[in-house]
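Homework help board

Subject: predicted structure for assignment chain

Our instructor gave us this sequence and asked us to write out the predicted structure in C-alpha cell form, then describe one feature. I got the C-alpha cells but I'm not sure how to describe them. Can anyone check?
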Amino acid sequence: MQEKSTFNHGADIVNSAIRFTNAWFKQSKTITEELSDFFILPGGKVMDKQVIIARLKGIFGQSDEYVGGRYDIIDTDYELLDGGKGMGFVEGVAGFRAVLKKESKIVSGPFKLYFALQNGRWKIVNIEFPGFSY
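My C-alpha cell output:
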C-alpha cells in the first residue's frame, strides 16, 4: 500500500505568495526568504538570486514607501514531479500607492509568481508583479 502525503502543497505555495506580497508592500528585506537561488525567465534564461535582490532594492529605492497594499489571489496550481521536485504558480491582482516626497502614484495590475519545489520547500523562480521588471 502506498502512503499518501498529508503535506498541503497548495497551501504552502499560497502562504509563500502571501509572505512575498506582504514583504513587497513593506519593502522588507525578508522578501528574499521566498526567492530561489536562481530564476528561470522566458527563453530559458537563468538569473542568480543576487541579481533579483539588486533589482528589488532598486525598485524599492524609487519610492519612500508603499501605502495601502492590497491583493487578491485568483488561482493557484502545482504539479509534483519525480525526484521530490515540482512546479507551481499563484496568480491574482495587486495594487498599492507608491509615495515619493509626498507625491504618489497608483501601481496595480495582475501578478503571477512561479514556484519550484526544491529540497522540500517551494521557492519563487519567476516574478510577474506590478512595478517589477527584469
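Reply (TA_rk): Your C-alpha cells look well-formed. For the description, you could write something like this. The helical segments are 9-26, 49-60. That's the kind of observation they're looking for.
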